[in-house]
Amino acid sequence: MESKRQQKYAKLIQKELGDIFQKEAKPLVGRAMVTITRVMMSPDLGFAKAYLSFLMADSKTLFDSINDHKKEIRHALAKRIGKTVRVIPELAFFPDDSASYAQHMDKVISDLNIPPAPEEEEEEED
C-alpha cells in the first residue's frame, strides 16, 4: 500500500506527464491521444511506473517510440517539477490494457448462451 506521500507524488507526476504528452510531446505522439491512467511510486520516490492508454494510434509503435524518448520526457518533467521535488524519478512506461480487457470480457459475456430459467410452478397451500 502506498503512503500518502507516494500518492501525492504519483498524482503530481501523473498530472505533469499528461500535460507533457498533451502539449510538449506533439512531435513524438502526433495526433494520437496519450492518457496517463495510473502512476505508482517506489517508497524512496526515485522510480515511477506510469501506465499509458492510447487513442487514435497504433499503440505498439507509439509505445516503442515513447520508450525510446524516455530520457527527453524525464528532462521535460524535471523542468516542470524540479523545484518541487528533491529527486526526479526514473520513469518506466507500461501499456494500460484495462480498456481492451474490458472489451474482451464484454464480448465473452455477450457471447454466452445462457438458457432462460425455467418457470417455477407455484405450490398451492391447503
From TrEMBL:
It is found in: Cytoplasm. One of several proteins that assist in the late maturation steps of the functional core of the 30S ribosomal subunit. Associates with free 30S ribosomal subunits (but not with 30S subunits that are part of 70S ribosomes or polysomes). Required for efficient processing of 16S rRNA. May interact with the 5'-terminal helix region of 16S rRNA. Keywords: Cytoplasm, Ribosome biogenesis. This is Ribosome-binding factor A. GO terms for biological process: maturation of SSU-rRNA. Belongs to the RbfA family. One of its GO terms (molecular function) is ribosomal small subunit binding. Pfam families: RBFA. Gene3D superfamilies: 3.30.300.20. The gene is rbfA. Monomer. Binds 30S ribosomal subunits, but not 50S ribosomal subunits or 70S ribosomes. One of its GO terms (cellular component) is cytosol.
